[in-house]
Amino acid sequence: MLLNKPYIFIALLGISAQVSAESLRDPTLPGKGYSGTGAVSQNQHQALILNSIVSSGNTAYAVINNKIVSVGDSIQGVKVVRITPSSVSLSDGRKLAVFQAIIER
Question: What is the arithmetic mean of pLDDT over 50-65?
Answer without folding.
Answer: 90
